[in-house]
Q: What sequence folds into this?
């Protein structure tokens, strides 16, 4: 089978629908997909029957409503197609009502109080804008997930809402420029995905990796990533075989997997897809993460998606490349060659600048997690301060506009938007800035702060909603202007003047930038609790409620869920450390210390110098005692922290006390590892984990 034949072969896509559905049903379904129109149940029955027949021909025996609860991963409950015909036979059946709606238990997923244990009813609703697909022997129907009362219990529903309101706001703006043929504006995303591959046998010998996804202990090996010899290096045959099968499995599901390479850290890699509609890109990224882990096991690997699985080398992120496109094929973030296109581009550019500046805290919140806290600000990720990179040329254009001065670039003309032409910007007009959280890269923005395991739904919901708010504000000004060009020019100039503090083209890792950012009034929300507390700020609640992306109740629920998740993650890590220290590490070091003591006795009896044994035994004994004392303290702090029922205070206790004690325990244990003979150390070390893939 060729790649073109393979691609989308397990997807009930437009080509399959056109082939299998009656023309009137196909047109009605397209009207539902394109315009959000209601699909009559009788037509849904026809779609369901065709979908079932196609799936059975592909070997499917079951179907599931595939949804994305607030756990950050996907969920599914499988039902077979069988329906009893009489006492001894069955028929294969799938009706429209089963396609469009399901009823999973809503009380066992995170709900932030939206659902109590005794309030179990929840609904999944078919999302026809995302194609159904077959995974294994199951037909997966992408759905939204809500409570009995209609509150969103998932990540997809708010994303769909944000895409809809942004589309409407953007259409109003492009119509002001005379582009009446535009009937749809959609956001597109291409999420680059980083990950680690380690040997499966070694993984199961590390309880910390099994329970938490990261190494809670581990001394650095003699060699790390300092030679930069892994980045873009030759891919090992075993890893290449994994990548090839992963590509094939993704292609069957219609995922646009395109680029793969070695990343900076040893055993770290990246997969990048082609851009697609944000809703579909979100589904595809969830499938990508799931298949990465499943295919890895077939090749004797475990795929790690934690943001910082190894201390001392780069962690893994996910670059969210975001843009806006019309149904006429125009990228609204692509600088044009005519005055009207220039003006339209600059207005949308300024809308993003203002949105990022005014809602920088929400962008930080959208990537906040216990895992990502270990990564942000290190040498593989941007700092926690949100800023934007535009490059020198585009920054000079905006500077000239703000000052009403001549642009000293290629055209050297007075910068009056809509009157004089803006130079065409090639995609590579500026350098790239790896330290910038939000960088313009020619015709899109690359948001680099996401962690590897995160759902991209949260970030894109925030970006979409914030830009929607600004576009609506711009429309209110421009739609009533007597002189459109003059009003447009003044609006862009004023936006640049008021929000240029968010623009920074320099080194985001430089401490001087953090000082400068503080002077500019930019927020530096270093930890997840620091960030999440701002989710319920009045301006943020107003943003989501006013644009009908979240209700106030839904926002408060997410506030609680995010803090609870942060606390639970650290709590699990702390308990894992305690278990490993008490049951494995401390006894192993004690055993080695006894062995050294026996060597001292033996050598002394023979009149042989025992300097090594004496010094190492003494040091290990002291360190082991210290490790035991810190472990006891950690147990106490975990217990006391969990007595606090207030979610904010509980999160703070875990951050300020539990996490700091965990770090202290790690320092002692890692030093003991460097002194303990390898055969006595109770788990695979960093050398084996990072360089063990042959």
A:
């Amino acid at each position: 089978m060729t790649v073109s034949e393979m691609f989308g072969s397990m997807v009930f896509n437009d080509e399959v629908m056109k082939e299998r559905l009656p023309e009137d049903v196909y047109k009605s379904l397209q009207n539902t997909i394109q315009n959000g129109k209601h699909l009559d149940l009788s037509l849904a029955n026809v779609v369901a029957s065709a979908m079932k027949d196609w799936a059975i021909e592909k070997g499917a025996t079951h179907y599931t409503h595939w949804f994305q609860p607030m756990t950050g991963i996907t969920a599914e409950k499988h039902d077979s197609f069988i329906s009893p015909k009489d006492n001894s036979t069955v028929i294969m059946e799938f009706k429209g009502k089963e396609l469009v709606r399901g009823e999973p238990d809503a009380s066992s997923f995170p709900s932030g109080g939206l659902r109590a244990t005794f309030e179990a009813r929840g609904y999944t609703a078919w999302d026809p804008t995302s194609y159904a697909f077959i995974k294994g022997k199951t037909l997966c129907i992408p759905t939204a997930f809500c409570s009995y009362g209609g509150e969103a219990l998932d990540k997809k529903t708010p994303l769909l809402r944000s895409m809809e309101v942004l589309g409407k706001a953007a259409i109003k703006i492009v119509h002001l420029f005379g582009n009446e043929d535009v009937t749809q504006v959609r956001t597109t995303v291409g999420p680059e995905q980083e990950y680690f591959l380690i040997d499966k046998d070694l993984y199961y010998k590390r309880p910390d990796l099994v329970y938490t996804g990261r190494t809670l202990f581990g001394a650095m090996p003699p060699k790390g990533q300092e030679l930069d010899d892994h980045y873009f290096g030759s891919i090992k045959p075993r890893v290449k075989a994994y990548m090839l099968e992963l590509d094939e499995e993704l292609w069957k599901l219609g995922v646009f997997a395109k680029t793969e390479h070695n990343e900076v850290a040893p055993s770290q890699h990246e997969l990048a897809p082609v851009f697609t509609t944000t809703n579909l890109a979100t589904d595809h990224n969830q499938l990508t993460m799931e298949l990465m882990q499943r295919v890895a096991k077939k090749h004797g690997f475990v795929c790690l998606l934690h943001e910082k699985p190894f201390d001392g080398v780069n962690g893994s992120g996910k670059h969210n490349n975001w843009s806006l496109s019309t149904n006429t094929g125009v990228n609204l973030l692509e600088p044009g060659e005519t005055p009207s296109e220039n003006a339209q581009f600059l207005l949308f550019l300024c809308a993003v600048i203002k949105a990022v500046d005014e809602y920088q805290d929400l962008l930080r919140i959208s990537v906040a997690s216990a895992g990502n806290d270990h990564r942000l600000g290190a040498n593989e990720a941007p700092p926690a301060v949100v800023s934007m990179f535009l490059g020198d040329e585009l920054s000079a254009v905006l500077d000239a506009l703000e000052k009403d001065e001549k642009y000293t670039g290629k055209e050297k003309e007075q910068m009056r938007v809509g009157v004089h032409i803006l130079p065409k910007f090639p995609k590579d007009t500026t350098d790239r800035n790896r330290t910038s959280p939000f960088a313009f890269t020619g015709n899109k923005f690359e948001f680099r702060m996401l962690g590897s395991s995160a759902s991209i739904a949260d970030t894109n919901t925030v970006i979409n909603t914030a830009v929607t708010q600004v576009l609506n504000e711009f429309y209110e000004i421009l739609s009533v202007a007597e002189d459109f060009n003059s009003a447009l020019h003044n609006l862009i100039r004023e936006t640049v003047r008021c929000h240029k503090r968010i623009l920074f083209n320099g080194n985001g890792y430089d401490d001087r930038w953090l000082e400068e950012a503080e002077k500019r009034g930019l927020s530096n929300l270093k930890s997840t609790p620091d960030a999440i507390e701002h989710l319920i700020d009045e301006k943020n609640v107003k943003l989501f409620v006013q644009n009908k992306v979240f209700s106030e109740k839904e926002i408060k629920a997410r506030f609680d869920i995010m803090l609870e998740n942060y606390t639970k993650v650290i709590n699990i890590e702390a308990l894992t450390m305690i278990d490993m220290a008490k049951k494995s590490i401390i006894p192993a070091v004690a055993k080695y210390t006894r062995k050294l003591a026996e060597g001292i006795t033996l050598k002394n009896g023979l009149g042989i110098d025992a300097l090594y044994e004496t010094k190492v035994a003494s040091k290990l004994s002291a360190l082991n005692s210290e490790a035991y004392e810190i472990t006891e303290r950690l147990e106490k702090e975990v217990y006391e922290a969990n007595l606090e029922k207030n979610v904010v205070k509980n999160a703070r206790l875990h951050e300020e006390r539990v996490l700091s004690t965990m770090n202290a325990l790690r320092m002692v244990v890692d030093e003991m590892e460097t002194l303990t003979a390898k055969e006595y150390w109770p788990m695979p070390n960093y050398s084996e984990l990072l360089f063990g893939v042959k």
User: Anything to note?
Assistant: The chain has three domains: 3-154, 162-550, 565-691.
